[in-house]
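3.2 Worked example (two chains)
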Amino acid sequence: MTNDNGKPYLVLISIHGLIRGQNLELGRDADTGGQTKYVVELARALGEHPAVGQVDLVTRRVIDPAVSDDYAQPIEPLSANTRIVRIDCGEEAYIPKEQLWDSLDSFADNLIHFIKQQPRRPALIHSHYADAGYVGTRISSLLGVPLAHTGHSLGRSKRRQLLAAGHSKEALEARYNITRRIEAEETTLGVAERVITSTHQEINEQYALYDHYQPERMRVVPPGTDLQQFYPPTGDEFHTNIAAEVARFLQDPGKPMILALSRPDPRKNIAQLVSAYGESPELQQLANLVIIAGNRDDIREMDTGAQEVLQEILLHVDQYDLYGKVAYPKHHQPTEVPTLYRLAAFSQGVFINPALTEPFGLTLIEAAASGLPIVATEDGGPTDIIGNCHNGHLVNPLDNADITDKLLRVLTAAGQWQTLAANGLQGVKQHYSWQAHVEKYLEATRPLLEQAQASPPIPARRRKQLHHDRALFSDLDQNLLGRPESLTPFIQALQANRKCVLFGIATGRRLDSAMQLLKKHRIPPPDVLITSLGTEIYYAPNLLPDSAWELHIDHLWNPRIIRRTLSGLPGLKLQPNNEQSRFKVSYFIDPQIAPDLQHINKLLHQEGQAVNVMLSFGQYLDIIPVRASKGLALRWFADKRDIPLERVLAAGGSGADEDMIRGNTLAVVVANRHHEELSELALANAEGIFFATRPYAEGILEAIEHYHFFQACEVAAP
């Protein structure tokens, strides 16, 4: 190591937000949240390690009467060898991070001046977020000091989320400087010799979107957990307000507790958990179910997604007559969350996270630190956590039998509960405490500290296919699932080209049903999932719903009038509730006795209902908003991702797929799907539609050959 005392001098850079050593103003605004807490705790923990000499946490100096004078102090000691250093950054006032870009060169120059005044040169610079990455690359290049980087949040993922929320591309540039941010991230990833992430999924699914994707330089170092706040029960938890609030729901509050804690978000899959519990008399006999799903005063005043989740939970409680067995308190304080974990642990219960996907799983670590075994979704970060701690079981979140089985294993296996609880406590201490975090951090950065000289940056390997200039969409059931042996070569071809081709599923199924089939048949998670006949759009990696699409299709939609208008018609019968959704009214239809589609449309028009009426396979009738369909959802997605329709290959075959394969898309109808509903297309030999001679996934591969669809992916970028 390069320092005189043999212990390295580390410089952490975190520019935006309000950073101080005590009383962090977490949640004050979008810039003062988890990152500010993380960098302060990281600096402290590094400074306490005997192998570290000096730690400087460098941030922006703010001189503004609207904020505390603390943020104007140039130096704030945190310990004997750790301090916060505040550097002038052009504008003195406190402003959002998106407005800092033009001041970052000034910040970098001032920081170089500060470093040159120090008695020794840093052994490592660690930048946090894109703005610090921009500064870090300049400092690293000028001083020849190795650079490590943590993204915290990535611009490419952020852009997807904001587009899904309805923001225009122009608005993203005006408000978020999103292109500038992504360019800074690309440069940083090209220079950084170590990228620190929280999970393997972050590496594989988020950083993989970048040209400078260098997984060999990336290391997973999970965040630390505050073991002063989360610890095993002491016995006095039952004398708290939150314990009384939970107990008032339950006939026998002394039973073991199955605890679920999350936002009321459809992706958290809480209603499925209630369904599994309701279907298991054994679980109901053994344990109470406690659901902490945010805070609410009136469900009717919450956003639509939260309303649907909470209403579905309440309906399941009523359907299975779970009164006295399920608690779902309306309010809790953040400070009561550790008590809830300890209550569950004291009862010898279990914590469950049944989310459809979970990028990290902080609640699982908190539960483990509280001495509570866990059951968690097999999708995402929980795989790492349970693999490290051996304190629970992974579960298919869409399989009630699997959920029930894993919960019963924890609750009934002789001696297993104590073993899992002990494993969790030890695993958190070993892998997820701040001390463990620092040990892994130093292990990950040791080669950089020992070389003491930055390696030359690796030139970007420009992979234009990364930007996904084409997309392949397929229906699910008949297109992909009819012949399992033909699915394997299709998946292999798709995976070989996923860097340049976006993969989408467009199905009439609901999200949970579609996810269940994807998992069952080991189909790679799609980049975009269009469900419920095009009324819902979800984006990878976290199944982010396209809320802008929901607002768009809500135009003139009134399902109550639709059901009333069609009530009593011969040959029509409503499908079960699990096939209905907010934007889809679904019937079984007997064409022999039911009115034809023209008459059904006429009845709806007479009631002022402008809708799309879909007939599939001669037996399913679906009514959806006039602005919704598989084809319209596909085009909405293609427009947002700037993919020309001429580079979209759509595979379909039923009447519900017609507008997806008509028009300017490349299209294929596989051999088993030459359904009579599309007979006119076949007779007309419709331009742009390829009628495959082979069935199922083989027919899609035949179309890929026919259109030379993957050819561009095979050409090396210059």
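3.2.1 Second chain
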Amino acid sequence: MTDVTDATRDAGADATIRACLSLGQPRSFFLFAGAGSGKTRSLKEALEGLDTQTLTTLRKHSRKIAVITYTNAAADEITRRVKADPVFQVQTIHSFAWSLIEGRTADIRGWLESNLRTEIAEIQAAHAKGRVGTDAHDKREKKMASKTKRLERLAEIRAFTYAPEGDNFGRDALQHTEVIALAAHFLTESETFQNIVLARYPFILIDESQDTMKPLMEALLTFEARHRGRIALGLLGDTMQRIYTDGLRDLDQRVGDFSQPAKQMNHRSRKRIVDLANSIRRDDDGRQQRAREDKPGGTVRVFLAPSEGTDRGAFEAFACADMARITGDPAWQNAEAIKTLTIERHMAAARLGFSELFEPLSKPDKLKDGFRDGTLPAMRLFTHRVLPLVTAQRNGDAFAAMAVLRDGSPLVDKRGIRTGRGGQASGLDAARAGVAALMTLFKDEPDPSCADVLAVVAEHRLFPIPDQLRPCLPDDNPAAEDMADILAELDPLFDELDLTTPEDTPPTEPTITEAWTQALDAPFSQVARYLAYVEDRSPFGTHQGVKGLEFPRVMVIADDVHTRFKGLASYETLFGVKPLGPTAQKKADNGEETTIERTRRLLYVTCTRAEESLALVLYSEAPDTIRRFLISNQWMAEDEVVMAAADGTFQEAAQQR
């Protein structure tokens, strides 16, 4: 009998997956894999382990294995591991959904027509009940006009377009939620479409399945049940690591007929961190992990301070210094060597110095998701066009500057160079003049506002101005043109699904133009800080941005007072300082998700990013209550909780230890 080791303990789960991927008897599965368990590695090994006969048969019949990953980086890594073999179709969920519906112009048009008519009727019904003269009344009128215009123009569209990672403007462009909804609709309502999918894919494998959008996941589950035995739907994930509200909450309860292998090991973190993670989820689903025998020890500390009267910057610096002392690891005093995780991005924005840019654009439902993950098209004008151009000019790199212009400026495309613009000798001359004018801003005013930068870019036509930004330009700017037709083309963009829950939504919301007008007052230097943050090149991050990542040293900051979306999470509710509010309690009584569940998941995701040591910095109106909770629930030992004094001071406490 072979001894079980940490490396082989989960081999049975991997073997189960391989057995499910059989062309003769495909079986769907849900692989439970907690933090650091090697879930993605299991997926890679399953693909690499497919026998030659299976791959040969798939190629012979032009069939593919769909592999859906959460990020482009994960897709690139899996593609590399399978040596870019075209039999593996590795994509993100949006790319996969688009690959299913692309080219089905008539079907898409029919769905959009039906959907638009329904939405218009719903708005009209609400409009009839509303009061005249209110903001809501005016918004409904504008929305009805916009949707009606889009409906009238549907017949003009020859082919629909969509860019999973790029800009989706124009009357023929589909938006992210529309692509997901269309794929879900066809999967459940069109028998012809279902047969096409069955013929194309014997296996559909989805990594991070707990965060796959609910409409598409429900459609895939319905599709699988209807055609069980003809296709294997392979789901990999951990419901405790669901971080988006549009994921399927009860996914693990919807796969009762699936094979359900589970992984026990946590290969990432040292034992003390694994023990804390087990404590956090013990009262949720009870699943527990094992730490590797060669990863004993590890350090966890909680630093508690009053919400009022505490100098947060000083307290967090104190926590880092204390962690350096406790662990004997001087890197804890190097900010770049620590990953600091916050509950909300605006907390990180404040600490990194781009709040003026961040706050306005993170409020409107139609902007915040794209802005927060770096994909908002209008913002990309600054991050992917102007910033690289300014940086290249400052560095004296003419080659890099020209590369930026060739990539995005109409002045230096073939037609622009040949014919020029506005009577100028050539587009190249115009580009040189525009760049000179732009750089003059940074000479006269070292840190001009984004509005000033935008005005120069528009005046000299250096880059196309996204439609969202045109209303923010001066009336005499050449790019400030009639917006009637543009608004109709933007209708689907403005209708992007809001991924927050009602309790997450702030009481008032600025219009898109108001938000941009405020954000453009921010100094242009904040663009670089924002970009470093969304590209994960800063010491700060959030639970969304670090999904699947790991770091030797992690600091988690929990500060309910500085949380803007109060319903998103509440550490003080999780730790018993505050009770659930009436609305949340009603949800709990109805079996719906509560703040406590979301906060527990958030805490689990952030804490399990740590490999060696972890510091939790908690600000509370009742630190003593949190301390009692942590100790009585055996999350922490008494000597693992560091308390600041009631007046917010903490050096004395350190000296006493």
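3.3 Remarks
Confidence is low (pLDDT under 50) at residues 481-509.
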